[in-house]
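Sequence in, structure out. Go.
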Amino acid sequence: MQGDLRTPAIVSFLEQKIGFRAGKGQKSKPILKLHKDATADMVSNLTKSQPGDSPRLHLFYSGDSLDTAVVSGDGTKVMMPNCDSVECALLVLVATYYVFDIDYPRAYSMVLGFIQQSVLCQPFTTTTTKGFTSMIHMLQ
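Output:
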């Protein structure tokens, strides 16, 4: 699998620039988690989720190479053996929200909305942060 570590770094940068950071309510949380040199047992343990947990993406690397990607949430896991890149895994994560008709949780909403609007060309109509609006305008 291609495992370019730049894409997770870009997602992290976006989360910092467009996420909820101030004010009342839940702040933004990272939508993806990187794990290095994990064994198969560790993959199983690290991707456990509880009922009601929102889907998030786990990326497992050996060195700089992406070994596997897993979407976990609501006590369920979606293994992605056929995803050949981080970008593919991110699209599967977004598709998970669509397929199961799950609203984006506030903690992940800005980055998921950004992917929806900038990559999938589908309008994101929820109230956004100033950082989100600014980043979208820079891309247009």
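Check: The longest helix spans residues 86-99. The first strand starts at residue 32 and ends at 36.
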